[in-house]
Amino acid sequence: MLSELWSDLRYRLRAIVRRDRVEQELDDELRFHVERETDKLVRAGLSPNEAQRRARIAFGGVDRTKEEARDARGTMLFESILQDTRYAVRGLRAKPGFTAGIVLTLALGIGANAAMFGIVDRMLFRAPTYLHDAEHTHRVYLASTSAGHENVSAWTSFARYADLLRWTHAFSSIATFATWRIAVGDGDAARVTPVAGVSASYFDFFDAQPPLGRFFVAREDSVPTGSPVVVLSYAYWQLEFGGRADVLGKQVRIGHTLCTIIGVAPERFVGIDDEAVPAMYIPITTFLWDARSIDYSKNYGWQGRLLIARRRPQFTVAQATADLTTAFQRSWIAGNERNPARAVPVATARPRAMLGPVQLERGPLAGPEAKVVAWVSGVAAIVLLIACANVANLLLARAATRRREIALRLALGVSRGRLIRQLVTESLVLALLGGAVGLAVAQWGGAVIRALFLPNDVATSIFTDVRSLIVTLLVTMAAAMITGLAPALQAVRSDLARSLNAAGRDAGGRASRLRTGLLVFQATFSVVLLVGAGLFVRSLLNVHKLRLGYDVRPVLVVTDNPRGMKLTTAERSALDARLVDAARATPGVESATPVSSVPFWGYEEPYLFVSGVDSVSWRGDFVLQAGNPDYFKTMGTRIVRGRAFDAHDRADAPRVVIVSQGMASFLWPAEDAMGKCIRIGVDTAPCTTVVGVAEDLHMRALQGQKEYTYYVPIAQYTSAPGTLLVRVKGDAADYIEPVRRRLQHEMPGAAYVTAEPFQNMVDTKTQSWRFGATMFVAFGALALALAGIGLYSMIAYGVAQRRREIGVRIALGASSSNIVRLVVRGGLRLVVLGVVLGGVISLWAGKWIATLLFDETPTDPVIYASVAAILVGVSLLATAMPALGASRVDPNVALRAD
User: Fold this and answer.
1) DSSP string, 671-713
2) pLDDT digits over 93-108, tens only?
3) What is the rounded distance in angstroms from the CA atom of residue 512 to the CA atom of residue 827?
4) Which of the 8 DSSP states describes residue 456?
């Protein structure tokens, strides 16, 4: 039986693949049977012609027999689909301009959605490459309460990681990791490179097999020093070593540790890359020892590690969370015992643990970028709907011009279902062509988006991404149904008699109303997108106008790294002083200062003690900043009261401090801060006197978070910071290499300096508004263009259909201006209706995006008025050409046309 089924299946497949040959065989077989019957009748005494006639009669008709044979082999449906496809392709090739316009319109809509799906999928849904058992793998978050506010963090210390590893039972594996940018290489070849320090258990979370060598194991990740081994990323191996197999055993200096290459990670393996795509992986213990060369294993205060954990299948998320929280509380107690001076009771801190998805943007610390991306994805879907409405309008117009053809085919006996299928097939061909071009649009557009807003993302090709291809195919099929079904149904519902007598005129009122509705839809949602674009652009402008408390564009952040050289605090301070002098001597540099904290990058928050104020450090974020007398000049921070530092603020001089306005108001709300005493570090520290008040700074956030800053002279600072700020004339990006090369001459041995524009650090905090503004403007402009094209095509089509009426009006005395006003008024009425509906929808939706805006209200009347003016202006342009063409109609020609 199976052999019979297989034989039947092969026959049917052959009938599809080799249709012409099977048809020829059918003709040959029928001819053979007719000839045999004819010969039989001739032998019976009939003439050849009569015998052939009777043989055909006996056979019942060759064509009918062929149809029965085709039905029997069950391929008629497929053959009719092929026939419809060939007919559609021929029809579209006959009108290349019409076809190209529709394909491009659909390509932009489909491509926009495919590109945004790739971004959303990467940020929110797709598990990291090679990650296995993603269902039971979680990112670990730790929370504690201070000043009545719970603080959630994904960062922790190695000591805390060791405690959780030791005291939990619900997890089969816990791993810690961190990615830092440190120097790799020697001498002039040294480059700052993202290096991941990971525990040996980290690789167990992935189904990744090294194409060369191996990963490191637990014995190479032992406390405190670890083993000096390194696993290269595939990209770094290819770029720096040319993919050579003899790379194993070679050594590369990472930080100040000389590490031996033991393996290469597989292609596209990036682990969990929150900060940057790592170029290499070293044991976390080697990583930490290289950074500090101290016993970090008992230091609960040195944060900077992230945690992932794999839950055992027999434990629920709630049970695993409870187990993790219990271990965290035990670890909190251990930390208090380790550092009694900073101990906070468990009852006060209320430490607890949380399990979240591996994707950071789906957890409790998700930034605004994820919300903006989700909104932009919705915007892309609206753009697709507008594109589909545009295409549906064009297909409705085309169906109207083909009404007589369709009516004639119906009158000749073609079924309405068969005709609908043929028209929908035409839409499907257009959509598939649009989808194919849309993939190219998505590949290019996705690459641009990742380069601008996701620089740490791994470049991927949409043509090899199965998930993106499936989504693109589904979007394409949806577009085909949306654009093709309504025109097809409209075409076959028309009255045959009226359609046959229409002679090309639009006799379908229902079709006209549908086209009008589609145009209003385009105008409505174009308003929504343009309002969103305006709100995000205004937010971005507000961000740029915001006074941060310092200048950004002319400042370079320079970091010096002795790379393992043992320098005393005095020697390190002397090195910083030489670097400051060298920076000042560089052409184009105005000033320089060492600093202990850099906004949006690094902070120092020692304990503060103020007479009359309890638990100061637990009542807010107080960031310490240290600098030389040029600090405020270099930063551009204004002193609003008192004085800045000067040359008299030496180490042996009275201790002084400058506080920010907000800090002064918070600590001494009803008093003058000048002359007040602050004790820094411990409550027995010498009194530090307030001698000035500076403007407030934004240190960690641009909105919503109160931040306090205070400043001490670098000469009275207790350690050497190793970071400089350099102010230049012009754009800091132009001075990176000149400053770096000049300062590198002052660095001893293998030590090095790095320089980065301060602007880069601030830009990370404005990314959500930049992304929202860019994408809303791009999609809004695209929607506006599509709406304008749709309005133009509809008005032009309407003018063509009303050509006889316009000719009559002109013959009766209507002036050109009357005709222009008639045409323009019709289009403008639809646009105004769309503006009103779009404004109402925008006001309703505004409340949902209010939290994503910066100092901007979602009901800004200027935005709404501007959008209305833009859309009306575009509508006037779109109707101008058809209106002018209508005003030039020759009544003699128009009246004779039909």
Assistant:
1) S--TT-EEEESSTTSPPEEEEEEE----SS-SSS--EEEEEEE
2) 877 877 888 888 888 8
3) 13
4) T
